[in-house]
Amino acid sequence: MPTHRPTFSQRRRLLQAGSAALALAAGAGAFAQTGARRTLRVGFQKGGGLLGVLKAQGTLEKALAPQGWAVTWHEFPAGPQLLEALNGGSVDVGYTGAPPPIFAQAAGIALVYIGAEPSGPSVEGIVALPDAPLRDAADLRGKRVAVQKGSSANFLLVAALEKAGLKLSDVQPIYLPPADARAAFESRRVDAWAIWDPYLAAIQQAARARVLADYTGLLRPNAFYEASRAFVDAHPRTVAAVLEVLAKAGAWASANPRAVAELLAPQLGLPVEVVETWQRRTTYGVQPLSDALVAVQQKVADTFHAQGLIPKKIDVAAAVWRWNRG
Question: What are the backbone dihedrals phi and psi of residue 143, each rounded to the nearest 5 degrees, phi first?
Answer without folding.
Answer: -90, 160
